[in-house]
Design brief:
Blueprint lengths: L1 H5 L6 E4 L11 H21 L4 E7 L12 H18 L5 E7 L1 E3 L8 H10 L4 E3 L6 E2 L1 E3 H13 L7 E7 L5 E2 H11 L5 E3 L18 H5 L8 H17 L1
Helix pairs in contact: 2-3, 4-8, 6-8
Length: 244
């Protein structure tokens, strides 16, 4: 890690996006290593080489408003690192931007992710897709809009004082999971049967999550990809994959 900094005279910004959800039966220590220990070492290295800005990718699960047992190891490890970012940035040696990312989706994402799984199931015309009632409200944001938001933060880094800054990243709007799934089903012309209410909600299910995007808007950013356009990019991508 240090070699990378040593090979470059000056690194203006570090963007940390790596993560481990623990969905592949990783141990607690492996999740901790990926989401807490590794980025902490990266942050220390950035500070020692006088990097101006460290952009951390956090999750909408990590907030005092919610308490979920789902992916609890992942959520705890992400919270621990953001807490370290708060503590270390108090010394004002770096600008630590903690991006609280909402429900990101886009072509090529892992099949274990909810939107990718739904698109795949609809395109495969799975006879029955078992789902919860789907009343949860989510702030879905396409990968292209996520990338543009990161870019505008980096290119405006001179405007940020050293210390800790929390930034919400989403579309700023919510739609129900049911609405989203039904749109995927319609746009993919799927013959699959959507079985809403076949599954219960998870314990302590988050029923509404929405990003506050005012800070990004002040920098001139706005969400460009609406969810129908975003879904179509995934459908097109998956159809090309299945036709190869």
């Amino acid at each position: 890690m240090l070699k990378l900094f040593e090979e470059h005279e000056s690194i203006d910004a570090v963007v940390h996006t790596a993560t481990c959800y623990g969905r592949e039966e990783e141990s607690v220590s492996e999740v901790f290593k990926a989401n807490t220990a590794f980025p902490l070492r990266l942050l220390e290295a950035a500070i020692s080489f006088n990097t101006d800005i460290f952009v951390n990718t956090d999750t909408y699960f990590n907030t005092d408003k919610f308490s979920s047992y789902y992916l609890s190891n992942y959520i705890l490890s992400k919270k621990q690192f953001s807490d370290w970012g708060k503590l270390i940035s108090v010394e004002k040696k770096i600008c630590f931007i903690n991006i609280r990312l909402e429900h990101m989706y886009g072509p090529g994402d892992h099949r274990s992710k909810f939107v990718s799984w739904i698109v795949d199931q609809c395109l495969q015309n799975t006879p029955e897709i078992k789902l919860t009632p789907g009343d949860q409200l989510r702030d879905f944001i396409h990968i292209d809009d996520v990338v543009s938001a990161y870019s505008i933060l980096i290119f405006n880094s001179e405007k940020f004082k050293k210390g800790y800054l929390e930034v919400g990243l989403g579309s700023g709007k919510t739609i129900s999971v049911k609405n989203f799934v039904e749109t995927v089903h319609y746009l993919s012309k799927s013959k699959a049967k959507l079985e809403f209410s076949a599954l219960p909600y998870r314990d302590q299910e988050i029923m509404c999550s929405q990003a506050d995007i005012q800070q990004l808007k002040l920098l001139g950013w706005d969400c460009k990809v609406n969810f129908k356009e975003g879904i179509n990019t995934m459908i097109k991508y998956d159809r090309n994959i299945h036709s190869e």
